[in-house]
TrEMBL record:
Organism per entry: Roseivivax lentus
UniProt xrefs under CDD domains: URO-D
Keyword Lyase attributed: yes
Enzyme class, first EC level, given as a word: lyase
One term under GO cellular component: cytosol
Pathway: Porphyrin-containing compound metabolism; protoporphyrin-IX biosynthesis; coproporphyrinogen-III from 5-aminolevulinate: step 4/4
Site, Transition state stabilizer: residue positions: D73
Record protein name field: Uroporphyrinogen decarboxylase
Source species taxonomy: Bacteria, Pseudomonadati, Pseudomonadota, Alphaproteobacteria, Rhodobacterales
């Protein structure tokens, strides 16, 4: 086994951390914008296997990242379950809302998802054949809570208020949505692995808005169920969990879920991560994305600080969250050179 990401995920401490970047295929790259224009819009790009594979390859060609992440979106699963989905330019996703039993009953069964998602599996097959042999292919899905926040509100919200309200007022319905998404995520990820994904990552971008018992029930427990089921279906499959803004819950997340790697955002210091999280297994993160916009000496200093704090254990370098459209592609190169060149 030679791929650096897979070695780190198995617990090896490497002399130079492997590196990839959340949203590495995206609007900050001129070649992405060109391919997206060719596809027409974002969703057409996600469902066009040739072009989705092309934008996945772009950052690998330009930067030689150690991992490629399938180009798709966490909101394709609710669409496959029957929610309407569209993207408003400059604003983000919009979905039909699920706020009543009647809305829920209209959704399709999990067995129907492949009718919509099969082009995504074709993208994975193209990538699996076409990536350089040292590059690891990561598949992904949204975590049930994060996906549910969009399905319930019909859009992104600053505080996930509508999902918190449904959880409080119609708990049984809310839990049915989480259960359906947990089951759907397992099937969706399984198809990705069968098509060639070597690692899966579960994005729980809004995990931090769940407090106390709610975090355990609706972030940690679904991550555990998904991780355990994926590992029983595909023995040895590495799983990366990203309970963003998990705070103190990051500490026990490896043990509680069985994830091989816990990805951390930049609201926690790398020193804290080394002491409290990395002692339990591989970690991934956590340079602030703003450095990809601002660059310069700050970028170099902060990149070195993150690497210095985390290089003594199993570690994958990444940002704390996705790179933003206003980032400068040259700053990405500077970050990579700093990680690889010292
Ligand atoms: C919450 C969430 C979504 N999608 C995703 C998350 C979880 C991670 C996170 O917290 O960022 C995950 C995601 N979205 C995308 C990927 C592809 C792989 C990658 O390069 O990381 C991944 C892994 C492409 C995308 N997904 C989206 C884009 C931009 C679309 C475009 O080209 O216009 C990309 C490249 C659109 C998207 N998709 C989503 C939103 C809120 C938006 C709009 C925000 C924005 O415009 O940046 C939902």
């Amino acid at each position: 086994m030679t791929k650096t990401i897979l070695r780190a995920l198995k617990g090896e401490t490497l002399p130079t951390p492997p590196i990839w970047m959340m949203r590495q295929a995206g609007r900050y790259l001129p070649e992405y914008r060109a391919t997206r224009a060719e596809a027409g819009d974002f969703l057409s790009l996600c469902y066009n296997p040739e072009l989705a594979a092309e934008v996945t390859f772009q950052p690998i060609r330009r930067y030689g990242f150690d991992a490629a992440i399938l180009f798709a979106d966490i909101l394709l699963l609710p669409q496959a379950l029957g929610a309407d989905l569209w993207f408003v330019t400059g604003e983000g996703p919009r979905l039909s809302t699920i706020t009543s039993e009647a809305d829920f009953e209209k959704l399709k069964p999990v067995s129907a998802i492949d009718d919509t998602l099969s082009p995504v599996y074709e993208t994975v097959r193209i990538l699996s054949k076409g990536l350089p042999e040292e590059t690891t292919l990561i598949g992904f899905a949204g975590a049930p809570w994060t996906v549910a926040t969009y399905m319930i509100a019909g859009k992104g919200t600053p505080d996930q208020g509508p999902a918190h309200a449904l959880k409080a007022e119609k708990t049984a319905l809310f839990e049915k949505i989480i259960a359906l998404l947990t089951e759907g995520t397992i099937e969706y990820l399984s198809r990705q692995v069968e098509a060639g994904a070597e690692v899966v990552k579960i994005f729980d971008s809004w995990a931090g808005s769940l407090k106390g018992d709610d975090f355990i029930k609706y972030a940690q427990e679904p991550a555990r169920i998904i991780t355990q089921e994926m590992k029983s279906r595909f023995p040895g499959l590495p799983v990366i969990a990203f309970p963003r803004q998990g705070g103190d819950f990051y500490k026990g997340f490896h043990a509680a879920t069985g994830a091989d790697c816990v990805a951390v955002d930049d609201s926690v210091s790398p020193e804290w991560v080394a002491e409290n999280v990395q002692i339990h297994g591989c970690v991934q993160g956590n340079l602030a994305s703003k450095h990809m916009v601002t660059g310069g000496e700050d970028l170099v200093r902060e990149t070195r600080a993150v690497v210095d704090a985390l290089k003594h254990g199993p570690y994958i370098f990444n940002l704390g969250h996705g790179i933003t459209p206003d980032a400068d592609p040259e700053n990405v190169q500077l970050m990579i050179d700093t990680v690889r060149g010292g």
